[in-house]
Amino acid sequence: MNKFKLQALIAKAKQQHEEKKLRDAAEAAAKEAEKNPPLELDVQRPEVEILPDSAMVESVELEASPEVVDQLEQAALLRTESKQEEEGIQASPKELEAVTEIQFPTDKIEIPKSALVSSLPSRNTSASSNHSNHQVTHIPATTGKVFTETGSFHPVIPGFEYNEKQLLAIELAMRGKSINLIGAAGTGKTTTTREIIGQVVKLPQCTTIHHSTKYLDAGSPGVVIISFTNKAVNNIKRFLPDELKRHCLTIHSLLEFKPIRSFDDVELSQRNAQGNFLPTYYEDNKLPHIPIVIVEESSMVGWDDHWKWVIDALPHPEETQFIFLGDLNQLPPIFGPSVLGFKLLELSTVELTHVYRQALESPIITLAHKIREGRVIGPLKPVHDDGTGGFLDDRAEHGKVTIHPWKKKLQPVSGCKTVQNFVTKLHETGQYDPAEDIILCPFNKTFGTIELNKGIADYLGKLREATVYEVCSRGMFSYWAVGDRVLVDRQEAIITKIEETPHYSGRQPDEPSKTMNRWGKDPKKKRAAKEDDEDKDILIARGHDVLSTLEIGGEESEGKNTASHTITVEFCDTGMSRVLSSSGDVNAMVFAYALTVHKSQGSEWRKVFIFLHYSHNTMLTRELMYTAVTRAKQELFIICEPDRGEVFNSLTRAAKSPEITGVTLAEKAEYFKAKKKTMQRLADREAKQQELQSMEEDNYEDMDGEESSTEIKETKKKLVAAGKKAVSKIKAAIKSAEA
Questions:
Q1: 255 SS3 class
Q2: Which of 146, 521, 528, 592 makes an SS bond possible with 487, Cβ 3.0 to 4.6 Å?
Q3: What is the average pLDDT across 252-264?
Q4: Distance CA 522, CA 532 (A)
Q5: How many CB atoms lie under 10 A from the CB of residue 619?
Q6: SS3 call for 399
Q7: Burial of 256 by CB count in 10 Å (0-12 exposed, 13-18 middle, 19+ buried)?
Q8: Mind listing the pLDDT tens digit for each residue in 283-341?
Q9: Which residues are CB-contacts of 383 (< 8 A; sequence separation ≥ 6)?
Q10: 1, containing H or E segment
Q11: In angstroms, rounded to a whole number, what is the distance separating the alpha carbons of residues 694 and 6?
Q12: Cα separation, 552 vs 265, whole angstroms
């Protein structure tokens, strides 16, 4: 039996096992329901609308988890039930009357999924059902108050009055329900999340961590806050007690990604690795059980990679309570679709829609909501010498927005140099502080962050008379100085020390110099010899790169991965230091004066400068511009293309170009529903191709038998011999070039 047929049999066995688990779960749930009937609430419900040929399923009440109810004081519970029976708990129709589509398996298993809790009008969810090809049933979602009942609820944040949506999210979280909590800027997601964490850690459902990992301590509360970047979890981290601060982690830190160092890791890395790294915890080496996982900025987390890694590493994901936080108006992940979008189709969702007065008074939030709604921004005319044109909205302590359109159309290189000079003037006049402010740009190259960063770093380095070091790492040259602001693993840091790496045997860099710039040019040194050797350097670098892909692991590989200099950085948020000596670490480090919008997601700065050019037009989307604008806390300054005749300015162009179609929650859910269908079709097609390939392999073996097997073995031997010969030639070429 070949490997393809074996894989097909294994997949079929897994499917049968999962189906049996679902049937057993359904039977157990039915028996449990007979013993412990759900909490009955006297709520007026709309009639259940059933589409043609759909499965008939009874409406399911949201109920308090048995473990939590057992811990309530008996007298308080009796009073609550008595009040419900006499008066009835009337949920606000505006808050709770919406319905959503619930999808069911095509076999006889009938396990209803949780309904969507939102304030969207019923017409939106009804309209969305017309495009579904699955058997679905509309079920109204209702809930009453047990934990958040007025008089018995004691907020963790004193003096703050939560609105109905926020109380609903807190209620569901305290009942042990997995939910989505979403909302645009200014709607109070962070405050609600702080309250949820403060409440659930006191409940029995939040057990402790059983055993320690690098970041999780045994005996600590079983709440972990994760996200794709450190910046995303830092917003909530500063409000948490010390015992939970260590539980605010990136997904990579939680799973403890490490470099691939040996051939033993290669097979595993093909399934779990990202680049040259693989997780310590995965499907065969589980994390300790985590009762509650909160995913901050979950719109940034990819479904196919990041989330799959987390689920594979959890020992009992079905017993974990998940709370997904996010804003669907922000940028989706670079790799694959967002996990938050698909969770809209599975879990109860509370959408915070009330923008607080303090937020509405901010011109930054006002502009962000115009972009979110796809409205026209402007018209924006170029700023003239007489002061006319452009846009200014200064509301003193509530914030300031300045939009400065380009006076004329510039080529990308000229435009980049223009804004570099503009930033230096801002710094000279005290309007730009690298420690507090940030520059955002859609691209890295041409008119992008790479050249902007080099120009700003060079200017600031000259001001403090910094010594510039040329660092060689895997054939690449970069130029750094003590005091530079850099980004290491998506965290801001300051370079505190640069020194030569002992026993480094690679290409020797130039001597440090105060006159060298960040492009490697030094007017006081002759670099003719280096320029004459350019072809030789390229050959050596390429040869080492090829060999590095063929020789994994061992001392030789580790030596080649060492940079010419060891760089020590201190992280701005934590004050902790880290030493970077490997080529991979040094090459991954970038300047932090100007960032792409994707890298800025999850962070906030006092003042944000957004530089847009016509060469960025293909990248401008509603999500990108909304994300960029909402990074600013106090002041926003935008340079962009103006309106030119019938051609929209950069901001309106972005607002009119959504990556995820729709404005309302129901419309965005439709997008993810269609996306899920497309992904399923692709998966089915791939499975069918594998099945056909397996059948062809079986036929091939039956026809050729041992002769076919012998030919394959001979071919493999020839390929291995050819590979060894190629490696020998490359090594000889490198030695010849170095000589």
A1: helix
A2: 592
A3: 73
A4: 16
A5: 15
A6: coil
A7: middle
A8: 999 999 999 999 998 888 888 778 989 999 999 999 999 999 998 888 877 666 788 88
A9: 389, 390, 404, 405, 407
A10: none
A11: 9
A12: 10
